[in-house]
Amino acid sequence: MKISEIIEKNKKSMVLLEILIPKDNDQAMRSVRGTGFIVSRDGRFITNNHVYQQIPENERQYLRVMVPGKTDDKGIVYYDSYRLELLRRDEENDLALMKIITPPETAFAPVGDMAESESIKEGEEVLFLGYPLATELMSLGFGITLAANHCIVSAIKRRITDGSMHFFMVDTHINNGSSGSPVFSAETGKVVGVASGRISAKIPLAENKMADIPANMGICRPAKEIINLIS
Q1: Is residue 210 domain-shared with residue 184, that is, in the same domain?
Q2: Cβ(153)–Cβ(195) under 8 Å?
């Protein structure tokens, strides 16, 4: 399957989670927290548990989900903003299942099929879709920017207890905002996992500060854990 076809098929299923805190003069403080992807027509979607958990409790009331809406004749995509609710969390696998709050007749476009993630191997090509550095890009005037990363599976980590896959690693950096992005097989277009975190080198600086140096190592949770959470 062509990468361009995978992107086109799934881009309407990609959601962005943000905090909009009202301020004076009808202004709002905006902060993008991460990516999510719709898994059912009634608006259930998956993201990372840490995307939700790291939001201060007093700010969770301002959490919104932005969903791709209409596209105009110039190719510009407009996003619709909705409230949401938390349904379930899986802290061990860093996953959260949420739902968009809409009238019952509203229908959304879910991502494609989930793959048997235990079958993926090191060296396989994958890609993930999300909203990396979304807050920074919006401050530069780029607007909401859905971006794709094409990489390979660089390592698979298994549980000592039973040998099942705990997570797999990819050879690219998972930026802020990309947490919760679906990871697709570049061959089949099926979802094989969720982008969950990154590994960085910590370099000490002056005044007890640390520099976070990207190490091109990302952590992804396998699709089987998504299936367990939504079933």
Answers
A1: yes
A2: no
Which among 100, 126, 142 is the end of a domain?
100
Produce one character per residue of 95-124: b if its CB has 16 or more CB atoms within 10 Å, e if not: bbbbbbebeeeeebebbbebbebeebeeeb
Domain total in the chain: 2
Residues 44, 159 contacting (CB under 8 angstroms): no
* Residue 105 forms part of a structural domain: no
How many beta carbons lie within 10 A of that of residue 224, not counting itself?
A: 18
- pTM for the full predicted model: 0.91
Structural domain containing residue 147? 117-226
State pLDDT tens for residues 34-90. 999 999 999 999 999 999 999 989 889 999 999 999 999 999 999 999 999 999 999
